[in-house]
Amino acid sequence: MASSDSGSELQNGSINEVEKKENVVEPLRLPTVEEIRGQDIWNNCVTRSVVSGVMGGGLGLVMGLFIGSLDNPLNKDEMTGRQQLTFQAKQMGRRSVNSAKAFAVMGLIFSAVECVVEKARAKHDMTNTVAAGCATGGVLSAKAGPRAACAGCAGFAAFSVVIEKFLGHN
């Protein structure tokens, strides 16, 4: 009986220690001046948009290099090794520049619209993502006509929601 009493006391003792650790209140840490300035800079929609555009351009550059490397010349059998290498390098360069431009514009538009909608609504939720996706898709496909703009809006908004759910931000 003595061993069972000591076992229950041991369990109660460990539970009390856990409760004591959970009840410890850490002191409140106020942000430093540098942290506040950094937050103010990052909360600026222009800053967010430019950074997103630059990052999108970098991603597009890498994607273009990868996709451009997969292009094969049509008359590969008639070309020398040097000509194939030159063709491949030019193709990768063209693809990289085009992809970088497209991704930069996409990132800039999406980020700008999302930031403006978020500031106007004073909320950070899925509605901002849907509005930004719709605006981005609509603007990017507007040259093809109103039907394409509507399809771009719906498609990009749906894609944005899927990505947001996958990343778990909202």
Question: Could you explain the architecture of this structure?
Answer:
Helix content is 79%, strand content 0%. With 170 residues, the protein is mainly alpha-helical. Helix 5 packs antiparallel against helix 6 (146-167).
Average pLDDT metric: 85
What is the number of strand segments? 0
Taken from the alpha-carbon principal axes, the silhouette is extended
Report the structural category: mainly alpha
Distance between the termini: 54 Å
Estimate the helix proportion, in percent.
over 70%
Low-confidence stretches: none
The Rg value, from CA coordinates, equals 27 Å
User: How many helices in DSSP terms?
Assistant: 6
Main sheet overview: none
Strand portion, in percent? under 5%
SSE order and pairing:
Elements: H1 2-22, H2 33-42, H3 45-69, H4 81-121, H5 126-140, H6 146-167
Helix pairs in contact: 3-4, 4-5, 5-6
Summarize the model shown.
With 170 residues, this protein is an all-alpha fold. It is built from six helices and no strands. It has helices spanning 2-22, 33-42, 45-69, 81-121, 126-140, 146-167.
List the defining traits of the structure above.
170 residues, mainly alpha, 6 helices
